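Thread: Modeling a multi-component assembly for a lab meeting

Hi all, long-time lurker, first post. My supervisor asked me to bring a structural picture of a complex we are working on to next week's group meeting, and I have zero experience with this. I have the sequence lines for every component (1138 residues in total). Could someone generate the structure of the whole assembly? Inputs are pasted exactly as I received them:
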Amino acid sequence: MRFSRMVSKTLRDDPPDAETASHRLMLRAGLIHQVAAGVYSYLPMALRSLRKIESIIREEMDAAGGQELMMPALQPQELWDQTGRKKAFGDNMFALNDRHGRNLVLAPTHEEVVTNLVKANVQSYRDLPQILYQIQTKFRDEARPRAGLVRVREFDMKDAYSFNADEDSLDESYQAMAEAYQNIFRRCGLPVLMAEADSGAIGGKDSHEFLLATDTGEDTVITCESCSYTANAEKAASTIPKLLSEQEQCLEEVATPGIKTIAALAKFLTVHESKTLKAVFYIADGEPVFVTIRGDLEVNETKLKNALHATDLRMADGEEARSAGLVAGSASPIGLNDIKIVVDLSVTNGNNFIAGANKPDVHYKGANYPRDFEADTVADISLAQPGQLCPLCGQTLESTKGIEVGHIFKLGTFFSESLGADFLDAEGQQHPVMMGCYGIGVGRLLAAAVEQNNDENGIVFPAPIAPYQIHMIALNINNNEVFEVAEKLYRDLELAGIEVLFDDREDAAAGVKFNDADLIGLPVRLVVSPRNLKDGKVEIKGRTDSESGSVALDDVLVSVQEVLASLAK
Amino acid sequence: MRFSRMVSKTLRDDPPDAETASHRLMLRAGLIHQVAAGVYSYLPMALRSLRKIESIIREEMDAAGGQELMMPALQPQELWDQTGRKKAFGDNMFALNDRHGRNLVLAPTHEEVVTNLVKANVQSYRDLPQILYQIQTKFRDEARPRAGLVRVREFDMKDAYSFNADEDSLDESYQAMAEAYQNIFRRCGLPVLMAEADSGAIGGKDSHEFLLATDTGEDTVITCESCSYTANAEKAASTIPKLLSEQEQCLEEVATPGIKTIAALAKFLTVHESKTLKAVFYIADGEPVFVTIRGDLEVNETKLKNALHATDLRMADGEEARSAGLVAGSASPIGLNDIKIVVDLSVTNGNNFIAGANKPDVHYKGANYPRDFEADTVADISLAQPGQLCPLCGQTLESTKGIEVGHIFKLGTFFSESLGADFLDAEGQQHPVMMGCYGIGVGRLLAAAVEQNNDENGIVFPAPIAPYQIHMIALNINNNEVFEVAEKLYRDLELAGIEVLFDDREDAAAGVKFNDADLIGLPVRLVVSPRNLKDGKVEIKGRTDSESGSVALDDVLVSVQEVLASLAK
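Re: Modeling a multi-component assembly
Sure thing. I ran the full set together rather than chain by chain. Output:
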């Protein structure tokens, strides 16, 4: 591609409102163009990268036995009412009416449609298993689109669905997809974290996320360096060091004038925060729920939601808390009646806590469970944190920020039961089909790759997904020799099947060309200049090399092929 | 692909409500699955065909200098208000609100977004010309989706847009696209008609449609066998034989009791219909328009709309006609005041017409233009018909039914002016960019190909776009020798890069397998059977061959390659 003919232009300055590196760099390098909040056009170079990613995905899906199809975005709302997911998605789903007033939605995912398709085509265990996939456009009305292609409202996804006769077969499909995903990210040149994830309300027993580690990621992964344990923050378990057991004290009021927070309370009474009880008040599916947890820990709302089997969970507001008889700054499970109480496991591993008294400026000391208050539910509802201990090997946990780029999920029979997708087994017995679903956000993967791979000068594309392999600059292209050598090299490289972005601009200064090459970030840069040509040479430099080398004109093709081969390893 | 593993099933019986061959056959062969009215999933075999079509399109677009990008479906309505096209599309456009109440549309085409994109990237004549294209999903809320993939509400299109500095450059891009389109259809194995088409209200001066001839097509093309003239019915001109000029008669009333139609009038008065005047009453942009045309001709509403420079045209209803003083069955331009009158050219080529008198059961004879009535506009507004004469060479015109699969269109500066997409010429003068747009309906092309290529047993896929090249049937696959030979052949063919659908089903009878092969319609069928294997042979048959041949086992690969090579020609 000739740079002079390329429709997209690079921007010299950072665009306003682009806070993350990938957003900023993809706009500056002319990869994307914004159409609306969270809605972008992919310009030609971004599309080339996406096609490479898609092609890797397709090969690995096919190798794992997947069959590619294509399902529509426009779907009858009725189908989503059948599974209850119209309500579950709520404002996140785009809904519309057609000219006849029929209710339609724009699909954020395709379980409903693919299950109906399988229902129409699969009758017998002989037709199973099936892995069906598509690379298709999804719509999701995100409340806060952000970070360029990371969180958008229209996006391309590879979504795959497995259909299995039993758990063992589902395990095999799940395992095949997990391996395919590892292959995909490896082949894209992107190191990935595979983390245990929450399997949610619908879910079967397993779920894993794939994340690219980057400081600007909005997801947190808890990892153990000494064993394989990796889980996202919502799912992660941890071992909390037990407190020393003390002789049980009596419950006793203590004046705590003006004390409203755990930190202030611990300081005022000169105890560690782990000796206090934190109180949090929630509304779960419309019902009030009082939660207590050790003062040094945080509530993991996903674990709490699962413990309550709730579909909707939110913090209660001040008015709701007051009307339940709670006193802000001194809320307490002690003496609380007619409200569901959830106690974190941590509260059972210690005694003589400082707790609220539901009176202004007063707390209790010597609070003990279950002596002083009851629980409707005792469960692990705490957020694992770095510094706590690995639940598998007992070593210290660490935490990493990342961007989720893939998710695999055992669905069980939720959709097949809702939509009546059954099959007959070898004995003629009818069963709902077991399902799994497996997604990769294609556009997000590109953005995450850029977020993970850049420096102060621009993008550093992993070679397998770079829009072109070579960025060739002709300096002083009005010089006849430069023109002829550069044109010949361009032809020879393209004939050899090498993808070249050829900066043939007559009106751009050398500095502009070098800056654009760093900004766009292709793996290898070639420079044809009058100075090098005097020695019959061309300059060659990898994007991350600090120094450039030079190579004789006749050896350029071979050198380029060698460098590209080494990058492919 | 093993037939036994394929998710889609063939249907033995015709599905209800599928009226056209392509709709019926694509459902029966397991190519598509309906999700809603005019909304389909593409099953794996259809997707394979589509990918082949897309790949041919992409190669030809790239060869013509096109740059591929990808624009979103979700767009701010505001952008469409700027060009007035929200109103123009009306109910045909899907509109929706996001969670913040902002008005969005689902794009039926991308002129607005691509013009904005070019506005942001093109400043100078040096950046022009540009040809940008995408293969992307469009949405159109058709009033009556029909014929399977022919008229749908969600569909994939290749849409290209050219941006040019002047008319000459636009002509070049237009010509390059016309040639690319001819190449695309030829390479897909589909003979195509390129017809002059109406360039509509927005348009610049040229527009051509590409149609596949088929009896069930909803478009009509007027062609001349003896010269190159080809135009769609909306656009086609024709030479109407002049009537013999008679001596001018006086206007005279004649009783026509109970006569309401042209046919009845001509019969009653024993004259040819060409001696009568037909009256049609329209509402154009809210204003009444009276149209008169020779009784043997029909009004071409597109030509009428263009003659009136109207954006909205519809027939008036009975009440509107009565309140304008028109009498049904005897409507007439004679004596009509205060209404715009349009007279077809045909009326000026004849005299002494029978015309209405705006009185029940009475007509005039001896009606002459302009003696007896005036015209606000005289124009060619007649529908060209087979049997009329070619406007270029004077030979008799014919008519063909077809399905429109492509359209190229000079847009001029409508969009660049509406959206402010200007460029500076070499003298520093600012001009709006000239534009052209160029579309191919990808899914519709597949449906039209099936509509054009089938027989009583099923689809007859043109080889370049068949889902697989070979349909290999193993008869009696439980026979060890059949199993081993078929499996080896399957491996060898795939290793040689030949795409094989291998009917390896154990539980399907020979008749079922043969019927499925004819239904799916791949170009070449191979049969491995115990009978042929006795002679060390395999049966080979082209989809349209009446007889099958046989080929020695060792020669199968070479024979298949020869047959495929001959089909590729």
